Amino acid sequence: MTSAAARTIAVIPARGGSKGVPGKNLRTVGGVSLIARAVGSALAARLIDEVYVSTDSPEIAAAAREAGAQVVDRPAELSDDGASSEAALLHALGAIEPAPGILVFLQATSPFIDPADLDAAVSRVASGESDVVLAARESHGFLWRQTDEGARGINHDASFRLRRQDSEPQFLETGAFYVMRAEGFVEAGFRFFGRVGLAIVPDLTGIEIDTLDDLQLASAIAPLVAPAGHIDVDAVVTDFDGVHTDDRVHVGSDGSESVTVSRSDGMGVALLRRAGLPVLILSSEANPVVSVRAHKLKVEVRQAVDDKAAVLVRWAAENDLDLARVAFVGNDVNDLGCLALVGWPVAVTDAHPQVLAAARVVLTSPGGHGAVRELADRILTPHDSSAPTLEELWSRSAPTP
Fold first, then answer.
1. Residue 51's beta-bridge partner residues?
2. Strands (E) located in 325-381
3. What distance in Å separates the CA atoms of residue 113 and residue 107, rounded to the nearest whole number?
């Protein structure tokens, strides 16, 4: 059992107000809210014993608890725009007993925190190598300052331009995490004290969300950062055109329409059914070919649907399914409502850019060419590790539309 003095806790300050991105901490990246991502990263770190979220928002508190964190209720005077993160952390430490030995300060505005980076930073503080370790990424950028006399170089001599390989790297603070001796932080009242070390993180994971543009960028790269592997769900819902087909239709001279489907996808659906997972085809298309294919696959179908999201909600309720445990596979903008409702929004690789940005998982296969089979394999392939993966921890949190 970890002694009180050696205990490591994570605190995630997450107030409800945000001017740059309203409701920021509950916004989703890759189908998972920012607060759930931060909690999941902390829970997945081996060396963090407990995870707390400090908030003034009942909605954030509920999402934090659902994700597996404990909650510290933050008073209003520490929740306005002028309140510092240090004030929130000191308040949280005063409410948590016994006092920890190491404090890990995480920010939900960094959606791609690697638990391994957290563990490495905690080890450096625990060993006495550093009093504080903060996340940073390497930078060779040339900085300039605007003055009344014109732009002036800050970190370089503008009259002599070094090549990147010849310049000394500098390091940009990402804001993702700060690991520190708790006692030293309380004494200093600020996050930087004593010996400060840097945890260098990859550029891809170093993004911090301060604006809507940052949020869009994070959503776009989420499939590149998200761990591949097992998808843990209780049911699968798919669009038809562009998922079971390549989104093309063959029109005969008599006006008849036909599509091409993949036998591989048919086997994927059969494997899901054999495993006992409900499968639904949900389509706005009125062509009878949708119901014919569903009948062939022996799955439920709802077609000629105008409001797919409303039908999905009703179907989940009828089958006593938690939408957080459902995968929905889509390809175009009329699928966005459903993707926002489920815990596992999935896109085929040739999906519309907005769908790719909304997806938690982007399949490697295009629609009509084995995408459904790929999803089935990701769901049904067992995994050996007894420790929960970051994806599994994230999946405990219901999505926030």
1. 10
2. 326-330, 344-347, 361-362
3. 9
Residues 6+ apart with CB under 8 A from 53: 11, 12, 13, 14, 35, 39, 60, 61, 64, 69, 70, 71, 72
Helix, coil or strand: residue 64: helix
Q: Which among 83, 87, 85, 88 has a CA at the least distance from the CA of 72?
A: 88
- CA-CA distance, 22 to 121, in Å (whole number)? 31
Residues 289 and 255 in one domain: yes
Residues 188 and 47 in one domain: yes
- The contacts of residue 102 (CB under 8 Å, 6+ apart) are 7, 8, 9, 122, 125, 126, 179, 180, 181, 182
pTM, whole model, 2 decimals? 0.69
Asked if 154 and 144 count as a contact pair (C-beta separation under 8 A), the reply is yes
- The helices-and-strands tally (H runs, E runs) of the chain is 13, 19
User: Are 185 and 280 in a shared domain?
Assistant: no
pLDDT tens digits, 130-188: 999 999 998 878 888 888 888 888 877 777 777 767 777 888 899 999 999 999 999 99
Residue span of the structural domain in which 102 resides: 8-140+168-219
| CATH code of residue 278 | 3.40.50.1000
**Cα dihedral 187→190→191→192 (10° resolution):** -90
Whether residue 396 lies inside any domain: the answer is no
Spatial distance between the Cα atoms of 293 and 281, rounded to a whole number of angstroms: 9
* C-alpha to C-alpha distance for 229 and 381, rounded to whole angstroms: 8
- Specify the number of domains making up the chain: 2
Q: 101 with 8: CB under 8 angstroms?
A: yes
Domain shared by 73 and 181, yes or no: yes
